[in-house]
Amino acid sequence: MAQPLMPHATASWLVDNTALSFQQIAEFCGLHILEVQAIADDTAATKLTGRDPVRAHELTMDEIEKGQKDPDYKLVMTKGPEPVRRTKGPRYTPVSKRQDKPDGIAWIIRNHPEVTDGQISLLIGTTRTTIAAIRDRSHWNIANITPKDPVTLGLTSQRELDAIVAKAAKAAGIEAPVDTRLGEDRAALIEQLRHEREHAAHAGDAVLSDVDALFGKRN
């Protein structure tokens, strides 16, 4: 399914300017529903600059209105950017996001010390030298580095971060940590998702595969 060119910024705009559900926004932007929840709660302590998908000709007001009237309606993109196939090597990060990298690296080092420098390098798109400097606090700007969730900074997706953390935990022989940042909200979302999957199974809903692909591995 085609996704907006800037999914996190688009999700931020839809949260602020429409009455669409988090589920609808997550599916349209290709994000995890918890990522949309985090954007809405502004848990990154850094407000994302929204990107209007209507002005970008990726979504019409008619589609938004349909979605607002029917919470089960799936938004249809007007057009989508050409897909870019991910190649091996460090992730490319737009210039506007590069200043956030040290904060994202510091967050991973603090919260997931089992993740290796190589994994962080591939996840965020940085050098091992930079990671090492942040680890030993010799980085030139260490006084101004504040650990912030790389997902809410838009440096990676929740699914990719979870996959890296789970892989590192397995290699280290420890239990993968459970994301409890959203507390009871997370449990409620998971329960709602389980109910939706059961309903889809009974109804023969073809969307079941998409839901499982997005959220099934998080339980």
Task: Please give a handful of descriptors for the protein shown.
219 residues, elongated, mainly alpha
Question: How does this structure look, described?
Answer:
This protein is mainly alpha-helical. The chain has 3 domains: 85 residues, no CATH class; 78 residues, no CATH class; 33 residues. The two termini are 23 Å apart. About 11% of the residues have low confidence.
> What is the tally of helical segments?
11
Uncertain residue ranges:
81-88, 92-97, 181-185, 204-208
SS class: mainly alpha
Give the helices and strands as they follow along the chain: HHHHHHHHHHH
Shape: elongated
Mean pLDDT: 76
β-strand amount: under 5%
Q: Report the helical percentage.
A: 40-55%
Tally of distinct domains: 3
Please tell me how large the radius of gyration is: 18 Å
The total of beta strands comes to 0
Distance between the termini: 23 Å
Report the major sheet.
none
